[in-house]
Amino acid sequence: MALYKTITVNKHTKVLIWKIEESFEELNRNVKLTNHCQQRLDGMRSEIHQRGFLSVRHLLAEFGYTDFDLYYDDKGKPHLQDGKHISITHSFNFSAIIVSDSIPVGIDIEMQRDKILRIAHKFTPLEEYKTIANHEALVRKVTIVWGGKESIYKVYSEKGLSFLKHIDINDFSLETSKTKGTVYFGEETATYSLDFLEFEGFTCVYALEENR
């Protein structure tokens, strides 16, 4: 099995990343799913999505959980039966989960693609990136911003929250691997620490809630 990377964020929080190299049959072997999740798996038309879904169950096993320890609320947000905080992501041939026993967390993996620049205006002010002349660096930076907003969105999880209007990401250097994000929603403000890493043309960002 292909556990790709383990990140110990702190004594309460850990990230596991899986590189999906196995076939559907290999990943499905010995995996027991709840009826709800089996129906979700059976309803997926793409084998890439099926393999991503199953690889997450293998990541759960690395933490000592099974699919029966996981449930989703009415917003689609995952939770663990024991009360620990969890977030899940998968993109093409990578998947990841973050688990914390102390604070709300979110995680996102994205493939670095030019497409991100075509949709960037929907989630971030484009004028903020005029000083970046290098195309590759621009794609990398905007992908991190998207991943940061996505991971924060997964934690905050409120209907009506807009990536463009309500979530700000502090400026950062590609070399630092850290930044912060803030949600301004109604009368509420929430702040998050963000860490990011890049590997094999992918970007992973994870968010830890600082205060809300």
UniProtKB/TrEMBL annotation:
Keywords: Transferase
Residue stretches making up the 4'-phosphopantetheinyl transferase domain: 104-196
GO MF term list: transferase activity
InterPro entries reported for this sequence: 4-PPantetheinyl_Trfase_dom, 4-PPantetheinyl_Trfase_dom_sf
Protein name listed in UniProt: 4'-phosphopantetheinyl transferase superfamily protein
